[in-house]
Amino acid sequence: MSDLEQLKKELKALGAEYAKIKTLPPEERGEFGRQMNAKKQKLLAAIERAENDLESENIIPLDIYAPTAPNQSLPRLELGTEHPLMVELDKVVDIYAAMGFDVMESRQLDNEFHMFESLNFPKDHPARDGYDTFRTAEGFIPPAHTSTMQHRALKKYRHRLDENGQIAVVIPGRVFRNEDVDATHEHTFYQCEGVLVSKDATMGQMFGVLKHFFEAYYGQELKIKTQPGYFPFTEPSAELLIEKPASLGGKGDGWLEMLGCGMIHPNVLKTAGIDPEIYHGFAWGGGIDRLAMLKYNLSDVRYFESGKLDFLEEF
Ligand code: DAH
Question: 285: Cβ below 6 Å to ligand 1?
Fold first, then answer.
């Protein structure tokens, strides 16, 4: 008989013994009861200890570092990899960092001020509708673009201007839009924002930075061109296109819209405490998903957020 069984038997016997209390004269019952109770508590504690011992005896130590080769009886563990979009996002950031840009992180919940006011969207202006913003019940906004970070970036680094330097920062982040989903539109995607402010920033300098970026990312020379755009936070505003090269499935005649950009509107600088009479800036923002789709010749952006392992394993 195991210790535990023995103890349980004793506990049962104690129960039978306790029944004797009825046969005792009333003046002895109190003392008898106390003694029995003390024995019972002792036995219960011993049973608990014995049960705990048994439990730890039954635990088979698990070697979490054990290899799981297919010829072993353990199931084969699938090794995870980094999501392709995160891999591309790192490459994007690395290229800008090599050009001297600081990197700031975006956030996944923001507010009205950073989404609109700080970016010179007039109140009740129809341009606000163009961003198909989600809203939480509490009134927060999951950012519809990484431009929500511009104001924070300008404030964080404006001391550089006083130190005779410049603001140069990129901000990758996840963005959300309440729009219909199809092969080229997702409700959730990634963007990278760029901001540069100095005494002599120009559109020409911006196109130089962006051309260099696209050529570094695709690893080849590319032609770029612009077309007029409209953003409340830039003046003038433009859209930047790259010519789709043959190596990326182009026929030499296709232009692809890659990002929005422009000279930062004086109101945006002013709101961040930067004097637009002295300083000028340019900014841009574009999708990471789109960059990666072109690089890997993908036809459907929805794969990225689909969680399909067979797709993800291709990278
Ligand atoms: N935030 C814009 C969008 O998502 C893109 C953009 C345009 C960003 C102009 C900028 C900018 O920083 O200056 O459509």
Answer: yes
Please provide the distance, in angstroms rounded to a whole number, between the alpha carbons at the two ends of the chain: 61
Measured in angstroms, how far is the CA atom of residue 135 from the centroid of ligand 1?
A: 20
Q: What is the pLDDT of residue 311?
A: 87
Distances (CA, A) of 140 to 114, 119, 130, 189: 11, 17, 18, 18
Distance CA 21, CA 18 (A): 6
SS3 172: strand
Query: Which has the higher per-residue pLDDT, 129 or 166?
Result: 166
Q: What's the CA gap between 130 and 94, in Å, rounded?
A: 31
232 within ligand 1 shell (Cβ under 6 A): no
Are residues 190 and 175 in contact, defined by beta-carbon separation less than 8 angstroms? yes
Q: Ligand 1 within 6 A of 96 CB? A: no
Nearest Cα residue to atom 8 of ligand 1: 285
% residues pLDDT > 70 (the chain): 96
Q: How confident is the model over 59-110, as pLDDT tens digits?
A: 877 777 776 655 566 666 677 788 999 999 999 999 999 999 999 999 999 9
Alpha helix ranges (H) inside the chain = 3-18, 26-58, 84-98, 112-115, 150-157, 159-162, 203-218, 266-271, 288-295, 309-312
Domain boundaries, the chain: 3-57, 84-312
Distance CA 17, CA 26 (A): 17
Place 263 in a pLDDT band, splitting at 50, 70 and 90.
Answer: very high
Other beta carbons within 10 angstroms of residue 240's beta carbon come to 23
Let me know if 81 is exposed, middle or buried by CB neighbors in 10 A (0-12, 13-18, 19+).
exposed
Q: In CATH, what is the architecture of 84-312?
A: 2-Layer Sandwich (3.30)
pLDDT at 16 over 90: no
